[in-house]
Specification:
single chain; mainly alpha; 2 strands; 4% strand
Length: 361
């Protein structure tokens, strides 16, 4: 899933097949199709799956509501979510200060950088990204380290779990469907940290946990329904340009809702069939990769931009669309590898610091 997130954050400029003025089967057309598929459509299941798991795990041992258990869960998430969120939004500011010193060969004004550590940069600065299909404005609030919007929203829904638990107990799947409608229509709540993406998928995971339902069994049981819908919505979503287009975004939302369960069914089959065991270093480093892949840990370059330039300029090249395709596919894996190496070094020489930064995962 973290590789999927990196694919998404490559954010290529694409043209929907509906508006393309070049042949689909040309090298340009195939390259455009690949970018739409992997950055604007197929990989979009990653963050919703993370929200789903978070909701499920929060309520996994809730038989009935318990304020003591709630306080215990929130206390745990201060260490695993809140502290890492604050630190990983401050670190890019400090790295910018170091970069300024290296470029200008002068002592930077630390006070000016400290002023940047403000609620706006930590919570998210407002941007207006057009309107949705209803004509409502699309509000976006990205914190200093922009991928951490997921962590911010997760902190908010975790704090709201008493309300979420009550609504799910009383309304059951109805409240999840209401949140899902908000997600499908791309309705943005003008409050940083409160999104229908988080509410929908966190509540969906919570629903399975609260009512003791096995989501893997559910996914396997309904794969004959979810898989065809996943494939159909994937094809139409790609045709409309994925989530970069208004209609494509709605199709993409349906794709995500059904493909989550298709993914669970497929991967659980392979895990059971081949007795796949998790690689612990990859499990532990997942959060670190997520937090570092778009910040300048390589002095002036982020791991993502460094990997892209290294592959396209020096290793594979970018003279042809086929070379660009190869660079595009290898970039997320090289990015993850660089972050993994940084994680290994930090864990080797500063294990306590690494623990704090990764929420003691």
């Amino acid at each position: 899933m973290i590789i999927c997130v990196i694919f998404i954050h490559m954010v290529p400029n694409t043209t929907s097949l509906l508006n393309a003025d070049f042949p689909l089967l040309s090298s340009h057309g195939i390259y455009n199709l690949i970018e739409i598929t992997f950055s604007h459509m197929a990989e979009r299941i990653a963050v919703p799956i993370f929200f789903f798991f978070s909701g499920y795990l929060f309520f996994a041992n809730f038989k009935t509501w318990s304020w003591n258990l709630y306080h215990k869960k929130i206390k745990s998430r201060v260490k695993t979510l809140f502290i890492p969120y604050i630190l990983w939004n401050i670190i890019p500011i400090l790295l910018s200060c170091i970069s300024f010193y290296i470029i200008n060969k002068a002592t930077p004004d630390f006070l000016s950088y400290i002023r940047q550590i403000s609620p706006v940069n930590l919570i998210g600065e407002y941007t207006h990204d057009g309107t949705n299909i209803l004509g409502l404005p699309i509000y976006t609030y990205y914190p200093q380290n922009f991928p951490l919007w997921f962590l911010r929203d997760l902190i908010v829904v975790s704090a709201l779990t008493p309300i979420i638990y009550y609504l799910i107990k009383k309304l059951k799947m109805t409240i999840v469907i209401i949140f899902a409608i908000g997600f499908i229509l791309n309705i943005r709540i003008p409050i940083p940290g409160l999104s229908f993406t988080a509410l929908c998928f966190f509540s969906l995971g919570a629903y399975f946990a609260i009512f003791g339902k096995n989501f893997v069994y559910f996914s396997q049981k309904h794969i004959k329904i979810t898989a065809p819908i996943s494939l159909i919505t994937l094809i139409f979503g790609i045709y409309f340009g994925g989530n970069s287009d208004t209609i494509g975004n709605i199709i993409c939302s349906f794709y995500i809702l059904f493909t989550i369960f298709t993914t669970f069914a497929i991967f659980s089959y392979f895990i059971e069939r081949f007795q796949i065991k998790p690689c612990q270093i990859l499990v532990r480093s997942c959060f670190f990769i997520y937090a570092t892949h778009v910040i300048g840990i390589l002095i002036l370059e982020t791991p993502l931009s460094f990997s892209s330039k290294l592959l396209s300029r020096y290793i594979i090249g970018s003279e042809t669309y086929w070379q660009q395709c190869a660079s595009y596919f290898f970039t997320p894996f090289l990015t993850a590898g660089i972050c993994l190496l940084c994680y290994y070094i930090l864990r080797r020489f500063a294990p306590k610091l690494c623990g704090v930064l990764c929420g003691n995962r």
